[in-house]
Write a structure and sequence with these properties.
Structural class: mainly beta
Number of domains: 1
Largest sheet: 4 strands, antiparallel
Strand order of the largest sheet: 2-3-4-8
Number of strands: 10
Radius of gyration: 13 Å
Length: 117
């Protein structure tokens, strides 16, 4: 893993998203109910920035909504939770150290599914 500092924690509204432009990809750093997520900042349906959409709970999942057509993406998995999007977007491991947010930019964009206890 190669974590890279992408922003200060205070740069991300609660709830809200911040677009971070990196060399290889644009990432939305998202804050919702005290948690920080990193998700590819491009809707898989319409190719518009997800960071411009609303962050909210949808069907029990923390999501970000594409402002153009209303598709929501689960912040934990990148999976769309409603149509018209049918393809997931990449999600990345996040680490918060003090007031800094770090994202593993060398991750393959998929996170392992948590085992049910």
């Amino acid at each position: 893993m190669a974590f890279e500092r992408v922003c200060a924690l205070n740069d991300v509204a609660e709830p809200g998203a911040l677009r971070v432009e990196l060399a290889d990809i644009d990432i939305a750093v998202v804050r919702f109910e005290g948690e920080i997520y990193a998700i590819e900042d491009m809707c898989s349906h319409a190719e518009v920035p997800l960071s411009e959409g609303d962050v909210e709970e949808f069907k029990g999942a923390p999501t970000i909504e594409c402002w153009l057509h209303g598709s929501c993406f689960d912040l934990r998995t990148g999976e769309p939770t409603n149509l018209p999007a049918t393809e997931p977007v990449s999600v990345y491991p996040v680490r918060v150290e003090g007031e800094d947010v770090f994202v593993d930019t060398e991750s393959d964009g998929t996170l392992p599914v948590a085992a049910n206890s």
